[in-house]
Amino acid sequence: MAAYGLYTHIASNKFRSMLLLAGLFALVYVLVYAGALIAEAVINGDETVLHYLRRAFYDLKVAAPVATVVAATWIVIAYFFHQSMIDAVTGGHDVTRQEQPRLYNLLENLCISRGITMPKLKIMESPALNAFATGLNPRQYSVTVTTGLLNALDDQEIEAVLGHELTHIKNGDVQLMVVAVIIAGVVGFFGELFFRLFTNFSWSSGSGGSWSSGSSSSRSSSSSNDSKSSGGGAVIVIIIAVVLIVVAWLLSQVVKLALSRSREYLADAGSVELTKNPDAMISALRKIENRGELPGATSAVMELCVDNPREGFADLFATHPSVQSRVDALVKFAGGHDPGPLPLSADEAEEPDTQADQQGVRPPPRQGPWNDVGGAASPPPLPAPSSAGTASSNPIGNRVSNPLGNSLGPWGRH
């Protein structure tokens, strides 16, 4: 991605959201078709593959309106209720200037400096160091900060984190990721539904090569010799259906996680552009590193956070790039200084399960490849420092020319 990518990313996010919506419905229809294949094989197990494919296509045309209504309903529910659902999971609550003057003033000053409407400010009671932005329209926009982050970071570092979350809002990343989560949710729902229906039936070669319910009585075996070779088409279409379900699920996850990882680099860059302080963003990331796990939070909530820590093999399925790669990008392209990883204290080094037990909350299990999929992402280049700037003078804040002739970043001209 070229240096001007931070600016053009704002416009492209709307286009990407439309593609995701189109992909949502396309993947749902693929899953409905796979379900129709399974249903046809269960109902009649002694037809040819071509017969099943044609019948399933006819079934798809009949079921398409229902699938469309279900997917649209899911989107509407997410649009109106996602914030309340997130608050219910995390325990976040609104705060006023009187309750949190330090945090409120930092956010208000950032918004005033760029002439944007201040989002709602929420606090989550948790020792974890994290923050996230939510909302699908200006009336819903909110930034949630944990008490752990508020206590551990200084004002400049908190300002950098707030700038990171404001950039997510400004770039439309919140809407983008909510749509991406909806894709994964709808596809996962239909995929699990079809698998559950399929596993309730068992193949019986003695019943004409058909599928029968596990609770039904076995049929007479007198016709087994006449149908010994029947049902091959049903087996093939079942395999096709399973492949379609798995591929559709994988594609939804790949899109969601690739977008999630790339947006974090862009939000880091936007924060530096907004605050004029790359070192504060780096310092905040180092303090948050390995300290951001929210006990009891779902994977969908963790995807919205500043950091979603993963370890070892799970990094291949991460929603966020590693802190090290994000810091490296800020050092290379923003001229920041990396103090290096901060050692964990004895309490911080405890296993997340132990910490959660002490709080009376069980954390969600680490996600494996069936729940999160995605590979390592390369950071898009941040805007290069101006030749007149120094490493400590926030190079991203300076104007940099680009082939399109546009100002850099989501925050316009400086």
List keywords for this structure.
414 residues; mainly alpha; 4-stranded mixed β-sheet; two-stranded antiparallel ribbon; 54% helix; 6% strand; transmembrane helix
In terms of DSSP E residues, the strand content is 5-15%
- Give the strand tally: 6
What global shape is seen? Answer: elongated
State the low-pLDDT regions, or none: 1-6, 204-208, 214-230, 358-378, 380-407
- Rg, rounded, reads 25 Å
- Termini gap: 22 Å
Strand order of the largest sheet: 1-2-4-3
Major sheet description: 4 strands, mixed
Count of the domains: 1
Mean pLDDT level:
73
Number of helices: 11
What structural category do the secondary elements indicate? mainly alpha
In quaternary terms, these chains amount to: single chain
The H/E string reads HHEHEEEHHHEEHHHHH
Q: Estimate percent helicity.
A: 40-55%
InterPro entries: HtpX_protease, Pept_M48_protease_HtpX, Peptidase_M48
Domain Peptidase M48: 98-332
Binding site for Zn(2+): 164, 168, 264
Keywords: Cell membrane, Hydrolase, Membrane, Metal-binding, Metalloprotease, Protease, Transmembrane, Transmembrane helix, Zinc
